[in-house]
UniProtKB/TrEMBL annotation:
Gene3D superfamilies: NAD(P)-binding Rossmann-like Domain
Domain of life assignment: Eukaryota
Coiled coil: none
Annotated GO biological process: alpha-amino acid biosynthetic process
Protein name: Semialdehyde dehydrogenase NAD-binding domain-containing protein
GO cellular component, one term: cytoplasm
GO MF annotation list: aldehyde dehydrogenase (NAD+) activity; NAD binding
Organism annotation: Leucocoprinus leucothites
Domain Semialdehyde dehydrogenase NAD-binding: 6-142
Length: 337
């Protein structure tokens, strides 16, 4: 019987998941970890095996497989979809089974997002509402209909019932082209969602775009800025941790994108213009999400030793490399969800 800590990770082929997996393998205690990843593609699964990852081929749609893998793990990193409510419930059943068999609550580290803080500003105004991850009373005032909120609440409830220790990591606008062995091997996604989607749309229309007037504010965080040890920090109701270290307006992004498009010969104007309704439908599935406000303080994250270095200046500087890379790959990005 293995004495190693069993780690199960979902989303290893994704932008966040691959970064988490590589950090797990580089952790000082990596030799004591037995890491299993759920991979949809058998071909990619073989690639991950070459890097010493235990692979199970399957997806969230296989309820029994997902429950069994969760029940077998001591720690689960869930990085697939912050809105996958049914999959979350399946995983929680697995955690309960594990707890009933061992009497020890397993650890659940779930990636949610600061989209849970978003409003309906549609780019027309900034908000002075700032949410603090160190203030659970304030977090509990978030609307039930907020993005990701239904999933977050299910997880917090499970923690309160005592059969799992849950930590909800809420990154902001994550930026930077991902790097590392999984990216280099073609096994994982190197792009985030928000900025690449904006870049791709702007390239297609020939001018930088924004929702409304671009007055809304979002925080940002670089993909390579890490986290702390879950064994030493609050969980459940006290387990929200924002990943953010700077703020930007959508206009700031549009302006920098406009300058870049002119510099690379893809636009004649540096000034961003408002996306039409037709463009919102075409590029963003009809969603004005990019025009929302999402403002927060990472006091809880920083209180446990998280020390991000990169700022909004770095965020804006990342736009040109993103444009150049997407031009190289014909700016094919996943649809903004």
């Amino acid at each position: 019987m293995s004495s190693k800590t069993k780690v199960f990770i979902t989303g290893a082929t994704g932008y966040i998941g691959a970064s988490v997996l590589e950090r797990l393998q580089n952790h000082p205690d990596a030799s004591n970890l037995e890491i299993t990843a759920l991979i949809r593609s058998a071909e990619k699964g073989e690639g991950f095996k070459k890097f010493g990852v235990n692979v199970v081929v399957g997806s969230f749609t296989d309820a029994q497989l997902l429950e069994d893998l969760t029940a077998d793990a001591d720690i689960v990193f869930d990085t697939v979809d912050a809105d996958a409510l049914e999959a979350t419930r399946i995983m929680l059943r697995g955690f309960k089974k594990k707890f009933q068999a061992t009497g020890k609550a397993p650890i659940f580290i779930h990636t949610t997002g600061t989209g849970v803080l978003a409003d309906d500003a549609a780019g027309l105004k900034a908000s002075d509402v700032i949410w603090d991850d160190a203030n659970p009373d304030q977090i509990e005032q978030l609307p039930l209909a907020a993005p990701h909120r239904d999933v977050d609440l299910e997880i917090v409830q499970a923690d309160e019932e005592g059969y799992v220790r849950a930590y909800l990591i809420a990154p902001a606008t994550i930026y930077g082209i991902a790097s590392g062995k999984f990216v280099d091997a073609g096994l994982s996604n190197k792009h985030s969602i928000q900025v690449p989607a904006l870049v791709s749309a702007s390239l297609d229309r020939g001018q930088a775009g924004m929702v409304g007037k671009g007055l809304n504010i979002w925080p940002n965080v670089h993909i390579d800025e890490g986290t702390a040890d879950p064994e030493k920090v609050g969980h459940g109701r006290n387990g929200f941790y924002f990943g953010l270290n700077g703020e930007h307006t959508l206009y700031d992004v549009g302006k920098e994108l406009g300058r870049t498009l002119v510099a690379v010969g893809k636009s004649s104007s540096e000034e961003p213009t408002t996306f039409t309704k037709e463009e919102i439908d075409k590029y963003f599935n009809g969603s004005s999400y990019l025009g929302s406000n999402s403002r927060g303080l990472a006091n809880h994250s920083k209180a446990i030793g998280w020390k991000p270095k990169k700022t909004t200046k770095d965020f804006l500087a990342s736009i040109r490399p993103e444009v150049e890379e997407l031009l190289r790959t014909k700016h094919k990005t996943a649809a903004l969800r």
